[in-house]
Design brief:
The structure is a single chain. It contains 15 helices and 18 strands. The protein is of the alpha/beta class and 555 residues long. It has an eight-stranded parallel beta sheet with strand order 9-8-7-3-2-1-11-10. Strands 12-13-14-18-16 form a five-stranded antiparallel beta sheet. Strands 4-6-5 form a three-stranded antiparallel beta sheet, with no helix packed on it. The protein is globular.
Amino acid sequence: MDDAVPARERDDEWWRSAVIYQVYVRSFADGDDDGIGDLRGVRAHLPYLAELGVDALWFNPWYPSPFADGGYDVIDYRGIHPWFGELADAEALIAEARALGIRTIIDIVPNHISDQHPWFQEALAAQPGDPARDRFWFHPGKGEDGATIPTEWVSSFQGSTWTRTTNADGTPGEWYLHLFTPEQPDLNWNHPDVRTEHEEILRFWFDRGVAGVRIDSAALLVKDPALPEVGESADGSHPTQDRDELHDIYRSWRAIADDYDEPRVLVGEIWLDDIERFAAYLRPDELHTAFNFDFMTRPYQATALRASIDQTLRAHAPVAAPSTWVLSNHDVTRPVTRYGREETGFAFLDKRFDTPTDLELGTRRARAMSVVVAALPGCLYIYQGDELGLSEVEDLPRDRIEDPMHFRSGGVDPGRDGCRVPLPWSGDRPPYGFSTTAEPWLPQPEGWGRLTADAQDLDAGSMLALYRRTLRVRREIGVLRSGALAWLDGLGDDVLAFRRGADFVCILNTGSDPVPLPAGEVVLTSGPLTDRLLPRDTAAWLQTASAPADAGNQG
């Protein structure tokens, strides 16, 4: 497929400043009217994505899966879930998107597989000690009868990380490790089959034109084989996170990615507090980029946002890797809801039902923050529906919730389904063009008619219009792709202001009082201005030199 790539698209470092749109296929668009989004639906809306101005699409897992955890429990990495279509649909999508100048990134989930995967089914059918179990972490348990779990490690989804099997004769068997749900057994990355299989999976998709992979839970693959408790490793390392052996794995993956005529890209999902440990994954022979979650979780305060930006840029500088910026994703409360709350940051353990929010305030702040992140140096990710200003759906019927985070919390955590509700495309009532007649797999709220893509397409002041305008101006102002960031001080503690290059300024007012704008021509705002005063919860872009001739001033 590389030979067909136009020369103007052959920028091997496109990922350094790309705008990447996250597609949660199940909720994007339903092309066969069964209530579930699919690849045919995505293909039908590629012109919409091209007009939005994105450079690449990142797809959540589209593989065959029981969907115990939203598709992150994979049965077959070389297939497509029947809900979403067939392999030929994926190949057509990859080619059609690239013809529009849009690359494709797919999810890889190397830490675990589905308990329905042939490997794990073989392991369950085998006896203790059988080589089939060596691809996983089976353990006889502690105590004389093995009834005590091997470790007290806590699951990422709360609760235990070990589940006990049952032998063929009905007696209790060995335990197996799962850092997430019991339906997602962890792989043993010390086993050569595991490494070989994933290298072949990479080549399978790279050969089909995929431009890169996003690596789920990238810092969790390798475990300490001694299985110590957290804090009790002999060398002080964590038994399941950020182990040094990971770097050899990613060096081998980078060699595969670099072997293509148009090099492929590796993106890591890495949650680490240690800046130096985080940056180590971004050395020139490992991953290209890694998600920056810190900015997304910070409260809506100028000082907190500035601290996060400083920390992020400082972490990436030693390895010359680009930063990444994101306001939400398929796991996180949507910005319109989050920024309208008293606590505007985000933490998984803090999610609860009936948390009040001011959606008008949240929308104003989400507009402003979308302008700010687009001005930061590096790569920008946009989660589907944020460009429409969708809020978190927080009143889903309890019997429709599917997310395991809800159930493993004992029902106190609403889970993540509220940000996964199918998108509204057209019309004034459900299914809002997501399906033709079928009821969507999750119910959509009444009142989303004004938020459909069709309705916003006709409204110059809509969130969609703002996103389109922001991404267009971002492309037109060259310094936003490469210029260094320098802070503008002296504007007050509630103001976040920075310069990119010599003549571009971004300013955000998080305070309650309007603030005077710095000198320069206004080229973009998230909301209206009055006499060159920047109102509360508003952001603006200015140029001290000439702005693009057709750049928009009104947000």
